[in-house]
């Protein structure tokens, strides 16, 4: 029995639900295993038999397993893409809010530095914080924090 005959016989066994060597899945991998041929025999040498197999699967009203898997993967990827788009939109909103807050802080800082330079504000030194308190602030231990009061 030549390779093409073995493939046709394997096709019949799989489509009749009586596989002998494979799991009976409606895939080229299972067909090649059932026929005892390498997969590339179907994907390169006997593409007509591969196409015939898929046509017969569709004619029975079934969808090849590989197509079902791909459809599921497409669905999963579309959901992931939608979730990613939602996350990106939220991140863009967050960036805009952070840029606004940074701009406001920089403007206030410039104003305070100007008041300090012009001596129009009053500078006070705050009490030094303990080490445990400074662990949660940006000031180093023992460094006084200054702020300017508006007159």
Describe this structure in words.
The structure is a single chain. Strands 1-2 form a two-stranded antiparallel ribbon. Helix content is 66%, strand content 5%. With 151 residues, it is mostly helical. The longest helix is centred in the middle third of the chain and has 54 residues, at 65-118. Mean pLDDT is 83; it is low at 139-145. It has helices spanning 3-15, 28-35, 39-45, 47-59, 65-118, 131-134; strands spanning 122-125, 146-149. The protein is built from 6 helices and 2 strands; from the N terminus they run αααααβαβ. The protein is rod-shaped, with a radius of gyration of 36 Å.
The shape, in one word, is rod-shaped
The Rg value, from CA coordinates, equals 36 Å
Order of helices and strands: HHHHHEHE
Percentage of residues in DSSP E strands = 5-15%
List the defining traits of the structure above.
151 residues; rod-shaped; 2 strands; mainly alpha
